[in-house]
Amino acid sequence: MDNGRIMAVQPWLSIVMPVLNEGDGLDAALQALQPWRQSGAEVIVVDGGSTDQSLALAARGADQAVSAPRGRALQMNAGAALARADWLLFLHADTRLPEQGIERLRSLIQTDAVWGRFDVRIDSGHALLRLVGFMMNLRSRISAIATGDQALFVRRQVFERVGAFPDIALMEDIALSRRLKSLARPACLRPPVLTSARRWQRHGIGSTIWLMWRLRAAYFFGADPDQLAVRYGYPPRKN
User: Using DSSP, how many helices (H) and how many strands (E) does the chain show?
Assistant: First the structure.
């Protein structure tokens, strides 16, 4: 759908958002992206089989709203396949892009940059979560690895060259970053995205931090991402 825009004009950026039962917050998430759409970016929402109103809400607030098999990697790959821009940005439904990031990213893509991500800030006044956000950004700068919370962006040709997101149930962002950093280190934009604190609030800050460290370590040593996803709380994937 065009929502009053002329779709014949190629967008400068395709924002791909995978969703699953995000109906309660999706309208606000899409409303927050309107300045980006007004700048000439397109928004593609890919639903993974929601049982709420997510797909209907997406159809009203995005340029494209489609369904795909459940799984962030599969959903983001499906959205990328529909994208019309030369640059892709992958955005979680509970993460908000900074408006000041529009010009920063538009300037960046005029350079020889290959891929990158934003700094992240967690939407909480809790001191420990402020520290978590700081450590995520620091770790990313040192390791050249980006997480999905940091709104990873990449040239579409490069994304296709490295094989897109691997079809794994968890850590798809880490796996893609590893492929991309073999080509170049990421560009790190400082205007922070704001990501929800809901997963830390739901399970406890300390418990969530400990769980994520354990899962990352297990993945590093070769654990099955499908099993890690179940430990994280995702339902098992159907083969």
Answer: 11, 8
Q: Is 121 in a helix, a strand, or coil?
A: strand
The letter for the amino acid at 176 is L
Q: How far is the C-alpha of 172 from the C-alpha of 160, rounded, in Å?
A: 15
Task: Give the chain's domains with CATH numbers.
Answer: 14-232 (3.90.550.10)
List 229's β-bridge partners, or say none: none
Q: How many CA atoms lie within 13 A of 72 on its CB side?
A: 22
CB 52 within 8 A of CB 17: no
Q: Choose among 194, 158, 40: nearest CA to 103.
A: 40
Whether 150 contacts 117, CB under 8 Å:
yes
Residue type at 61 in one-letter notation:
G
Cite the DSSP H helix spans in the chain: 23-32, 34-38, 54-61, 72-82, 101-108, 127-143, 156-161, 172-181, 198-203, 205-220, 225-232
The answer to whether the pTM exceeds 0.70 is yes
Tens digit of each residue's pLDDT (9 = 90 or more) over 50-100? 999 999 999 999 999 999 999 999 999 999 999 999 999 999 999 999 999
Cα separation, 124 vs 73, whole angstroms: 27
Which three-class secondary structure state does DSSP give residue 55? Answer: helix
> Counting every residue, how long is the chain?
239
CA 130 to centroid of chain Cα atoms:
20
Q: Return the number of other C-beta atoms located less than 10 Å from residue 110's C-beta.
A: 7
**With the CA atoms of 140, 146, 148 and 150 taken in that order, what torsion angle do they form, in degrees rounded to the nearest 10?**
50
